Amino acid sequence: MMKHMIGAVGLSLMATTAMADCGISNGRVSIVGNEFPAIQTIGSGAMECAAGGVTVETNLTADHQKINVDGMSGDPAEYTSAIIANSSIVALINEDVIRPLNDLVEKHGGDLQPNQLIKVGDDVLAVAFMANAQHLVYRSDILAEVGAEPPATYEDMLAIAETIRSEGILENPVGGAYAAGWNLAQEFNNMFLGYGGVHFEPGTAQPSVNSEAGVNALNMMKALSEYMNPDFLTHDSNATNAEYRAGNVALMNMWGSRAATLVDADGVPQEVIDGFAIAGPMTVGGGSTPASTLWWDGWTVAKNISDEDAEATFVALMKAIDPAILDDAEISKQAVWLLEGYEPTPAAVGVYAAAEMGTTPYPYLPFMGLMHTALGNELADFMQGKESAEQALADVEAAYIAAAKEKGFLN
Amino acid sequence: MKHRTFFWFFLPTALAMVVFIAAPIVSVVVQSFHVPHEAVLVETENCGPFGCTTSTTVDQEATAALREEAPLGRFAGFEVYLDRGHLATAEIAAAWRTSETWGTFFSTVYNLPFYRALAFTLTYTFVCTPALIALGFFIAVAVNSLHRHLKGLVIFFSLLPMIVTPLVGSLILFWMIDSRGVLGNFIQYLVDDPGLSLKASTSLMWISLIVYGIWSSAPFAFVVFYAGLQTVPQDTLESSMIDGATRWQQIRYVTIPHLMPLVTFVALIQLMDNFKVFEPVIGFTAQAHATTLSWIIFNDLGGETRQFSAAATTSVLTILGVVILLSPVLVRTWRDFYGRRV
Q1: How far apart (Å, rounded) are the C-alpha atoms in residues A216 and A286?
Q2: Do A384 and B111 touch (CB under 8 A)?
Q3: Contact B83 A405 (CB under 8 A)
């Protein structure tokens, strides 16, 4: 992993001398974003445009969400661009700190595919460069041992898990990022959408998670958790991946962006590396929509900056997502790129399948963040068997309503 | 000291206190009485890589106009204080009316986030504080009786838990008590239950957090008491020995009374610190089992939509909690001070 990153940095440094000219002469570019390999690539790509009157800075950190709104609220804004996903763009839209990109797309956006443009109404507010989704990751060797096909539904997953346990191969064959908080809420969202649930009454901010779909989703999560490590409420994606790498897990729902590099770490047993396999997301309860959500990552341009800086930022980021970066096999593997000419690598089949199966995009409504927080806080009691599914969902709605009233989304 | 000299002497401190203590508290209190404007929502067509959908979004122009008019937001009075996320008066009243037994009433109250956090915070505070004072005192007495060549080394090791950053310390302990970790495995061996997991049980998680709290703060009590032990009057100690006092009696009747003001000091600081307990909940990923008031503030600010008013309200309630908690000790100190002068 580290070696690859050094390789990528080395490459970009060499490239700096070769093609420093991005067609801009002046301007300040300052990018804030998350820090996984694909975004590192975007950051170093934009850095290449630093020359002459153009300064480029990046601040790539897992805490980007805590600083991007504040960093873009000033006038002039500290950050001229934030790299965000479909959940986190909501905060930027709600606070009105990003500018419509229509004019810049017209002037400099020649290479963009139409589906890269994130539009709210007529305004282009972001340019997406990669897709992400949670999907099945499994151990093909263990499944072959019990004579099972990769599960297409969560019901199949339960049955296979039972077989693996009863044959004494693994005690807790199912993995899941069920850590109380954001992760647990996200798993609920997946399952809830898979059962055909809708988070809000259409056209309003009124919650509608306390429904049959909600109860079914919780019961399925509870059933799955019986096959998980008993500490599942403390396992986030990192801990779940560690369980998989240690060979303790045979089936799990995992992020596409993490699946590509899952078994690259040091000390992973050979059978885990050999058995590593990816498939599309699963459906649940006889539904046809996968129990997963589709995500995109993209970049925005701040509102409170000069037109010159905005143009420089746009051009530098366009340079960073130049389809030519896909010629590097390492970069091509880092994500499911939404760029022209991208060919899915074997690691990308899960996300590709998710998109083809018509997975629901993560709902980016102004009040979805509050719902996500409420779900994360209130579902742990049910998962521990301390209260009923109905009570847990009633608590979620009550917590959400209190928060939504405070934020002015509900009266 | 002349008043004039005192004024100039104290001015820098006073300024710093106003800027760094008083002003933030005022701003938090003001924030807690205001909530954001009602969002003006409109239906728009949103498009992205996965197609177009009609969905709700905030009408920026209308909202900006509202903000321009009243930058602080809507005045809400005690609305946020009383909502479900805080004092939850309506929910408690309803529980009072409908619950038939005390048990159901308490479990309904415990289901509310603020009271649940308060329950753990208070338990943690009132178990940790006396325990760490006792442990710190015990270590101080033990170290004090060591040979002087050994003292330096032992003091260094006794201070380690305090030197380690709380978050890092709790993370280390978190992995050690994992069911596959060193301590977790050892405990499984002790109780002869290979399925035991400290992280899966609420009561064991509470115990782990409290043990961590005592472990990380005992060195503070130890340092203070150890310093105090160096000032124990040797005359009194020697005369008690001549009177035939045992080691225990020396400690009970000479050392402890001498250290009492320090005990008050440590209790004061630690009550305050423990009431604000935060890092171990994060380090132990304990939110499914134990939450604290500080954790609620962090959580309100950590979501994709940040709830400043909710966080400010919990902050004010925390400050009030600290004041209530410290009032007996403060009153006592006040009385001691004036009692002596009169």
Answers
A1: 12
A2: no
A3: yes
